[in-house]
Design goal:
Layout: H1 6-27, E1 30-31, H2 33-36, E2 38-44, H3 51-60, E3 67-71, E4 73-81, H4 88-103, E5 108-115, H5 117-145, H6 148-172, E6 175-176, H7 178-208, H8 214-246, H9 252-272
Parallel strand pairs: 1-6
Antiparallel strand pairs: 2-4, 2-5, 3-4
Helix pairs in contact: 1-6, 5-6, 5-7, 6-7, 6-9, 7-8, 7-9, 8-9
Length: about 280
C-alpha cells in the first residue's frame, strides 16, 4: 500500500531537497579541475602504467591533489593539478616530471599546459545547459507519450534525483567534475526509464480497473512492476559497487554519483513520481 504512506515520503523528499540545496548554498561544492582550471601533464610510458602506484609516487612528492588517469591507451598517462599561475606552472610541471621519472626513468613528458578559469567556467555553463536541456526534453517526451499530469510527476521525480546527488557531493566534499555531471545525466535517464515502466502499467490499469480509485490503481501498478524495479536496480548496483571499490580514484566520483542516484532514483520511481 505504497500510496497510503505517500505523505511520509513527501516529508522525506522535502527534507532531502531542502537539505541538499542548503548544503550547496552554505557549504559549497568541491569543484574539480574541469571547472576550476589547472595544470595538465601528459606522459607516455613504454609499458602499461599502474595508476595507483603512480598516484602514490606523486603524493609522496608532495603533489597530494594530483588526479591521475589513463589517456587514450594504458601506456599514456594524464596528470591534472590545481591551478598554478605564471611561473608556478613550470615549477609544478618540473615536480611532476621528476616524480614520474623517479619511478620510471624512460617516461616521456609529451605535453604540459595550463587551463585557465575561463575554460572551467565555460565547461560549467555547458554542463548546466546539458542538465537543463535533458530535463526539458524529458518533459516533452513524457507529455507526448502520456499526458500532462504524468509529465508533471516524471519531471518532479527527474528533478528530485539530481538535486539529492548534488547534495551528496556537497555533504561529502567529493570532487565534482565533468564525470560526475555525466553520471547525473545517466541517473536522470535511469530514473525516467523506471518511471515510464510504472506509468505504462498505470495507464493499463486505468482501463482495466475503471471502478478503482486512483490510489488503488497506483498501488496495483507499482506492485506489479516492483520485482522488475528492484531486480534491475540490484543488478545495476552490483556493477556500480564494483566500479566504486575497484575502479580507483579516477572513477570514484562517477561511481559514487551513480550509486546514490540509483538508490534515490528507485525510491523516486516508487514513491515520488506517481504520488
Amino acid at each position: 500500500r505504497f500510496m497510503e504512506m505517500r505523505r511520509y515520503w513527501y516529508a522525506l523528499s522535502v527534507l532531502l531537497i531542502i537539505g541538499s540545496l542548503a548544503l550547496v548554498a552554505f557549504k559549497g561544492m568541491n569543484f574539480g579541475q574541469d571547472f576550476t582550471g589547472g595544470v595538465v601533464v601528459e606522459a607516455a610510458y613504454k609499458q602499461p602504467v599502474d595508476l595507483e602506484k603512480t598516484r602514490a609516487t606523486l603524493v609522496a612528492a608532495g603533489l597530494t591533489e594530483a588526479q591521475v588517469q589513463n589517456f587514450g591507451t594504458a601506456n599514456d598517462l594524464l596528470v591534472r593539478l590545481p591551478p598554478a599561475e605564471g611561473k608556478e606552472v613550470a615549477a609544478v610541471t618540473d615536480r611532476v616530471s621528476a616524480a614520474l621519472k623517479s619511478r620510471d626513468p624512460s617516461v616521456e613528458i609529451k605535453r604540459t599546459e595550463s587551463i585557465g578559469p575561463q575554460v572551467g567556467k565555460e565547461l560549467a555553463e555547458k554542463g548546466s545547459m546539458a542538465l537543463l536541456m535533458t530535463l526539458l526534453f524529458i518533459g516533452v517526451y513524457v507529455l507526448m507519450r502520456f499526458q500532462l499530469k504524468f509529465a508533471g510527476g516524471a519531471i518532479l521525480a527527474a528533478l528530485h534525483d539530481p538535486i539529492v546527488v548534488v547534495g551528496f557531493f556537497a555533504l561529502t566534499g567529493m570532487t565534482f567534475d565533468l564525470a560526475a555531471v555525466s553520471a547525473i545525466l545517466a541517473v536522470i535517464g535511469y530514473s525516467l526509464n523506471d518511471t515510464v515502466v510504472v506509468f505504462d502499467r498505470v495507464r493499463e490499469r486505468m482501463l482495466s480497473m475503471r471502478q478503482a480509485t486512483p490510489i488503488e490503481v497506483m498501488n496495483a501498478a507499482i506492485n506489479e512492476t516492483l520485482s522488475r524495479t528492484l531486480i534491475t536496480s540490484g543488478v545495476t548496483l552490483l556493477t556500480v559497487i564494483a566500479l566504486f571499490v575497484l575502479g580507483g580514484e579516477a572513477l570514484r566520483g562517477f561511481s559514487a554519483a551513480l550509486l546514490v542516484g540509483i538508490v534515490v532514483g528507485t525510491y523516486s520511481s516508487i514513491y515520488v513520481a506517481g504520488a
